[in-house]
Design goal:
about 170 residues; about 50% strand; mainly beta; four-stranded antiparallel sheet
Length: about 170
């Protein structure tokens, strides 16, 4: 079970809200989020309600201001608790929408997608096992996207602004 505490002010000040599960709309609990404390588990934070907009991965720890989680602003409107998995991880990538074209499989972290697969655009994906993070730049930098088990028929299904993937990381039980 995870637990995150959102604070309106920097350095854990002001009004706060404790959350222990998924929440599609946090706007009734606080007007802005300038700091967070994750006491257990991992969470994905979203800039807009209904799990939309920029996404930010937070593991156990303290984040005294939104720059610590690479936030673009103090707007956090929804969150998901990420279940920790100990088993294997497996996903398939496709060069075309609807699982068309060349297929590649991944079961481990990939710090540079272009170096490993000689391509950087992924149009669709099937996450068969585990939870993952996509990054739009190599070496786990840039905009991130949370990938749960399921089928993603086009990059917009995972919230992607483009089909470019720079790196991929498994979310593991720490």
């Amino acid at each position: 079970m995870g637990k995150i505490i959102f604070y309106e002010e920097r350095n854990f000040g002001g009004r706060h809200y404790e959350c222990m599960n998924d929440c599609t709309d946090l706007s009734s609990y606080f007007s802005r989020c300038n700091s967070c404390r994750v006491s257990s588990g991992c969470f994905m934070l979203y800039e807009h309600s209904n799990y939309m907009g920029h996404q930010y991965f937070l593991s156990r720890g303290e984040y005294p201001d939104y720059h610590r989680w690479m936030g673009m602003s103090d707007s956090i409107r929804s969150c998901r608790m990420i279940p920790m998995m100990r088993g294997s991880h497996r996903m398939r990538f496709y060069e075309r929408m609807e699982f068309g074209g060349q297929m590649m499989e991944l079961m481990d972290d990939c710090p540079n997608f272009m170096d490993r697969f000689h391509m950087s655009d992924i149009q669709s994906c099937n996450v068969m096992e585990g939870h993952w993070l996509f990054y739009d730049q190599p070496h786990y930098r840039g905009r991130m996207y949370y990938m749960r088990p399921g089928e993603y028929r086009r990059y917009g299904d995972w919230g992607g602004m483009s089909s470019r993937i720079g790196s991929v990381r498994r979310i593991m039980d720490y």
